[in-house]
Structure formats: C-alpha cells, structure tokens
TrEMBL record:
Membrane topology: Multi-pass membrane protein
One cellular component term from this protein's GO annotations in UniProt: cytoplasm
Organism in which the protein naturally occurs: Ceratodon purpureus (Fire moss)
Signal sequence residues: none
Entry-linked SUPFAM superfamilies: MFS general substrate transporter
NCBIfam families xrefs: SP
Protein name: Major facilitator superfamily (MFS) profile domain-containing protein
Main localization (coarse): membrane
Amino acid sequence: MAFTMSRLQQSSFRAAGVNGGCLRRKLQAEIPGRVLVSGLDKVVGCEGGLALNRVDVAGVRVRRWHQCRATAMDGENPKLSSVDVEKEAQVPLLEQVTGDAKSGEFEWNAVLWPFFFPALGGLLFGYDIGATSGAAVSIVSPGLSGTDWYSLSAIQTGLVVSGSLYGALLGSILAFNIADFLGRRKELVLAAGLYILGASITAFAPNLAVVVAGRLIFGLGIGLSMHAAPMYIAETSPSQIRGTLISLKEAFIVGGILLGFLVGDNQVDSVGGWRVMFGFGAPIAAIMGAGMWWLPPSPRWLLLRAVQGKGDVGALKGEATDAMQRLRGPSFSRKSAEEECDSQWSALQTACEGEDANVSFAELFQGVNKKALLVGTGLVFFQQVTGQPSVLYYAAPILQSAGFSAASDATKLAVVLGLFKLIMTAVAVLNVDNLGRRPLLIGGVAGITVSLATLAAYFSFLQDYPYLAVGSLLLYVGCYQVSFGPISWLMVSEIFPLRTRGRALSMTTLVNFGSNAVVALAFAPLQDLVGESSTFLIFGIISLVALAFIVTSVPETKGLSLEQITAKLDSK
C-alpha cells in the first residue's frame, strides 16, 4: 500500500518533529490493507475520512482513528457520520495530546477551588500593578509619606515601582529549575509565602533599602505564581470548562489591578497610606497559601513523575487517582478517576517517547523555531515597550500632571481606568475567536498609537484641556486590553512547535518581565530628562514600529490547529 503527503502535511510533520519516512512506515504498519489512503485527505469507503487528515494519526490516540482501524480490521467499511466527524473536529488538540478523558461528570464546587486559589496568585500580580500607582504618589508626598526620607530621586522612585518586576524576572528564572522538583502545588505554596513575606517587609520598612528588598521578595512570588498557576489550572480542570477557567484567570489579574486602584483611592489621603497599599496583599496571599496547602497535587504532575521514573509507579498512580477524585468531587467514581488517569498516563508515555528532551539552545534560532520565536518575543517585547507598565504604574502621577492636583482626584480616576480595563477584557475574550487575532491586534495597536500621540500633544500644547489626557488614557487602556493585553500570550501559547515549546516559552517569559522592568524603571528618569510630551512621543513612535511588525510578521491563527499554525509559519 502506498500513499503520498502534500507539501503542507509534510511541513506539519517536520514542524512537529516527525520524520516523513518513519511516519509512512508507521502508518503502513497500522492502517489495514482494506483502508486505502491518499495524501491522508481521504479514506476510501470511509464517510468520515477527513477526520483522519490530522497530524494526530502519527500516534496521538485519536478516538475516531482507533474506531476506523478496528472496524477495518473486522473486514467492514468504517462508518462515521458527519455529526461524529464534526464532533471529533471540535475536540481541542491540547486535550488529544494530553490524553484528557471526557469525564462527563464533575461538581462545580469541587472544580472551583483548584481554579480560585491559584488564580489568587494572578490577582496579587494585578494588585501590585494597581496599588503601586497610588503608592508612588503617597511615598513621595511631604505631608503623607510619614517618613523623613520622602524626597526620593527619579531613580529611587523607579526602584520602588519596578522592584517587584525585577523580583519576578528572577523568580521566572528560578521557576524552571525547581518546578518539576516541587510540583505545581508546592511552587504555589512557596509563592504565597514569598508574597506574605514581601508585603509584610515593605509595609513595616524603616527605610528605602528595606522597601526595595521587600518589593524584590514580593516579585519572586509573582514570578513563581505566574509560572505555576496556569499549569495547575490547566492540569486539574475538566476539559469541558478548561477554556472558560483560563479566560477567567486573565480577569483575576485585571480585577487585581482594579482592587489595587480602589485600595489606593481609600488610603492615598492617609499618612503612611503607602504602607497599607503594599501590605494589603499579605492576607490575600495567606488565603492563597492555605488553599493551595489544602488542595491535592496535580494528577498530571504525579503521573509525569511516574513516567520519568522518579518514584514508585504504583504509588504515584494511586496518588494521582486520589487527587483526581478530590478535584472532581464526591460523585466522581473511583473507576472514572482511574480511567481518566490511565488515559493521561498513556498519553504522557506517548509524549515522552516522541519528544527529544535535549533540545539545544541553538535550535531555537533555526528554521520554524526561529520564526515562532521572532513572533512570540516580538509581541511580548512590544507589549511592554509601548509604555504599558508606565501608564498603569504611573496612572495617578500622570493624572496629577494633567491637572488633577489632589492625590485623591488622581487615584479616583485611576479606579475608573481599572474598571474600564476590566470591561474591555470581557470584550476581548468574547470576540477573539470571532474576529481573529490580527484584526484585534492591528486595530488595538493603531488606537494605542493615536492615544500616545494625543498624550504627547496634550503635554506639549493642549494643557488647558485636562480631560483630553483622561480620554487618551481611557483610549490607551481600552485598545491595549483588546490587543496586546490578552492576545500576545494567547498567540505565544499557540505558535511554538511542541518539541521546543518549553524552552521557547521560558525565553518569552524572560523577555516579558525584563522589558517590563526596564520600561518601568526608565519612565521616571526619562520624564525628567526629556519631559512628558517627548516621553509619550517616543512611546508613540515605538507603537508605530510595533504596528508595522504585526502587519508584516504576525500570522492569523484563528481556527487553526497547533500543527497547522506551525506549518503556516514553516511555509512562509
């Protein structure tokens, strides 16, 4: 039996790390002689043949594939209805690769907590952004700072503001060395401890050096939680609601920003209010830590340890089954938990056999990996250097410069920005799969460019119109939240080939936190050096470059499988 593959299909297999010759031999050995294959586009006599036109046939256990093969081996023509094919086409590829069984039954009160407690780590990240906006006003106020060292230079203010970002950068580096050893749950418990320690040290700091140290420790918690929380949520959520929960995690981050603005508004007129703003995260982190201590480990992490030979296989599989039952609720039977764990165990064995663990650093800069890395790091880089950290961290000071002289006025308007950001997040989540990634990115970044140009004009010659600055900030926040905000990380999760995805994502994370910290630190000195107008003009020019990058380099990934996205990059 012979068959051919189209160039696009061959490109898909190469991008996934599958050798075409090996694939042909594998398929020839598995596909019964009664089923004729032509380019994997059609199975003669199989009404649902198109269901097999996927890279999944290289051994990733597609249920319809096994049904088709089993039926053919019985000497009958496979019969798949168009409804079956449509349902199979809608099964997320991530679910097929990870072996997620359709559990069918779960209890919402059981699956809520494995989402809620990790998501608090994201809420604390957002809270730090929002609270720092008000604290940056309070800590340098002669009457409200409550210290004798309130007269901070621009560099010192930048260290207070961006200290947590430098800690997050270090935390993201450490995470990749300890994550597999600790597991997702213990990593989040450690993150909660660092949150508590950092917030407490900052709140009771006797001098600037201790403030910066506390901010760095809090940032370590950010780095660990932003690494472990998405993995824990994805690995413990039922497949039916995984997408919903991951989308809600973004809302927790934005909700945290709004909470930070609200606390800042409440405390900005109090002497030493910045201490309350920074310390408010400690009790939230305590709830997070207690919740994560109570939750079970990720069943997938336990099974991964077993596959890697890092413990007794039987004991680890038993622990994974116990954890699965707890995560799904009392009505989820032991048998169902065992079946789901067995499905994940089989998929993990297949994944480990098919991947080369020793991906070299140089390989990230070759072929399709280089193209994907350019898109991924480019998006998160421009996400930061178009001024986003500055607009959020310095929202209150910017509004003060715009004519709202009272600190309380500025922070109240910052609350409006946070609420608007939350609303626009919902708009983006509801429309990203309908409109596509590129239209939202292009339209949003174009709006960002206009808003930054308007801010530059305001600070240059339109200062008699303070509400113009408010409108420009609202435009900036709205456009950012329907473009760079949610879509950058969505695309980063889609474009990297499976075999190099881990290392590529680690590099992308470092670029994100690194550029974020640099921009936050540089904003205040840049304002002092060239003034507000020129600062926003520089950000506007960078936004224009970002727009050109998106138009020329970022592909549309709407409706494509992960392999099709990789093949699309490989064919360019």
